[in-house]
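Reminder to self: tokens first, then the designed residues, so the page reads top to bottom the way the pipeline ran.
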């Protein structure tokens, strides 16, 4: 089992290397199989259910996040382009997981911080980092965060991306207020998450946060909405906001 995981990591590292070197290419040039991962249900309460992302076998989570067909519906190149020109900028990927987005931004940005609360993903990202070419390696940093704090330094980043993670965060308005402090003036925040409708990928509908709820929470959390797009991606909505 461990040998299989090591082999998988080696293959994935090769794929990320290729992704970095294909930075200017289209989305079809990107990465690795999508299996549906159903989060463990949480006990009923008055609060909306929060999916537990750490549930499930780590290898299955990695295989899911890095699935080969993901590039078709995730369109990472198009998503990253929404952040504009990243030259000279510092970007945080919150809930980075395997670094699916973080590593794709490394060739474009000055610095990329892969933030996660799960030490297994921190170790995973670090195992990818050491295989990157030197000029890219020095641009990437993994950061172990807390569930209620992304652990950014004051005004550390120019942009933040949160993909398929927003629904895992509890007390989201308070979280957004804390996140704001780690963002520079006019810094942008891009949130991408699954639409409701029993999709072939992503969590069950009960675990999703609706687009209009995210919009309201962003406004309460100190952000102005810049762009709302629920058409460019088949399974997900995109919300771009700016620190108020
Ligand atoms: C479904 S994965 C998405 C991973 C990655 N963004 C992607 O799209 O492939 C959710 C990730 O968010 C992390 N996570 C959950 N709650 C978090 C929190 N409060 N702060 C930071 N990361 C969190 C989990 O450990 C997991 O790696």
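Designed residues (244 positions):
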């Amino acid at each position: 089992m461990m040998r299989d995981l090591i082999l998988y990591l080696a293959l994935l590292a090769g794929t990320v290397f290729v992704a970095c070197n294909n930075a200017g290419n289209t989305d079809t040039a990107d990465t690795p199989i999508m299996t549906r991962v159903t989060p463990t249900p949480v006990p009923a309460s008055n609060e909306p259910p929060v999916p537990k992302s750490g549930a499930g076998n780590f290898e299955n989570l990695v295989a899911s996040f890095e699935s080969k067909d993901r590039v078709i519906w995730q369109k990472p190149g198009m998503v990253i382009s929404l952040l504009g020109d990243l030259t000279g900028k510092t970007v945080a990927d919150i809930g980075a997981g395997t670094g699916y987005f973080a590593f794709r931004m490394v060739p474009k940005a000055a610095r990329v911080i892969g933030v996660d609360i799960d030490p297994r993903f921190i170790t995973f990202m670090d195992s990818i980092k050491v295989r990157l070419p030197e000029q890219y390696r020095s641009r990437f940093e993994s950061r172990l965060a807390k569930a209620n704090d992304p652990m950014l330094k004051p005004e550390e980043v120019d942009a933040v991306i949160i993909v398929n993670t927003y629904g895992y965060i509890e007390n989201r308005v308070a979280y957004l207020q804390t996140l704001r402090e780690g963002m520079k003036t006019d810094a942008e925040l891009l949130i991408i998450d699954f639409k409701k409708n029993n999709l072939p990928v992503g969590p069950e509908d009960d675990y999703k946060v609706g687009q209009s709820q995210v919009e309201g929470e962003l406004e309460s959390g100190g952000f102005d909405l810049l762009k709302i797009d629920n058409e460019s991606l088949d399974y997900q909505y995109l919300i771009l906001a700016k620190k108020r």
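The pocket of S-adenosylmethionine is lined by residues 53-54, 65, 94-97, 100, 115-118, 121, 145, 147, 163-165, 168-169 (CB under 6 Å).
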